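Q: Hi! First time doing this. I have a protein sequence and I read that you can turn it into a structure. Is that right? Here it is:
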Amino acid sequence: MAYSKYLWSTLVFALVFTALFGVIEFVRTGQFSVVSIIFHIVGGLFLGLVIGFVSSRLPFRNSIRIALLWLALFVVQYASNLVEYYFYSTVSVSVILPDLAEGLFVTLIEAVLIGLLFVPVTKESSIGVEMKEFLEQRRSSSWVWRIVIASLLWVPIYFALA
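A: Yes, that's right. Below is the predicted 3D structure, encoded as structure tokens:
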């Protein structure tokens, strides 16, 4: 992807991202916050740069690429927070469900937008072939100990940062 097209795509994504969250904020509060708008512009630029880069490197057809982006965006932006909210607060599931629905909707829009703006230039491939090639880079025992160590380290790091 050409450098200028990449930057323009990032700018378009950031503007749509800001407008989307501006509408959500207005629906919730009935007003716009200048600080929030600036925050969302900066966040949209960073998200567009990073996720756009990732999207442009995924050699899958659009539907698979958008589905993967949707899953990643939803988990990072909403799911992890909603799980923490459920377990570390006294709210019921009925309070969390609207946020879950909003998260699914917002991240779908983001994923479709990123998927359409940041198209890879490489040939299409299947996710199965790509995963097989990736996993074959190491022996099975190497993957097992890496996953075990990462899993064991995740818990104390999570609690140290929470």
